[in-house]
Write a structure and sequence with these properties.
This is Winged helix-turn-helix transcriptional regulator. InterPro entries: ArsR-like_HTH, HTH_ArsR_DNA-bd_dom. Pfam families: HTH_20. The protein has 110 residues and is α+β, with helices and mostly antiparallel strands. The chain has one domain: Arc Repressor Mutant, subunit A (Orthogonal Bundle), CATH 1.10.10. It is built from five helices and three strands; from the N terminus they run ααβααββα. It has a three-stranded antiparallel sheet with strand order 1-3-2.
Amino acid sequence: MVDYSTSIDVIFRALGEPTRLRMVQELSRGERTVGDLAAPLDMTLAGASKHVGVLEQAGLLTREKRGRERVCRLRSEALHAASEWTAKYSAFWNDRLDALEAAIREENDD
């Protein structure tokens, strides 16, 4: 069952921005500091931190202070909720497309 404690629209809004999407992709490989996330994007720590904040508010990551660094970790729960939501509508559209295909075949057989 999808946990709607974090609204799905907030998750998709966060993932809809290319910079944040790249950060999530990088975090899928393991923990990263904010500096690690900023480096390949050629952005300042302040800019990266703003994007990390949006991802954190959407429940997509956690941020932990370790010494002088902020270490980010991906939260699979939010991604799972988004995946469940899209799977639900994928099944809906698959059913609709199957019905359309059957109707086209029937029409072509006539």
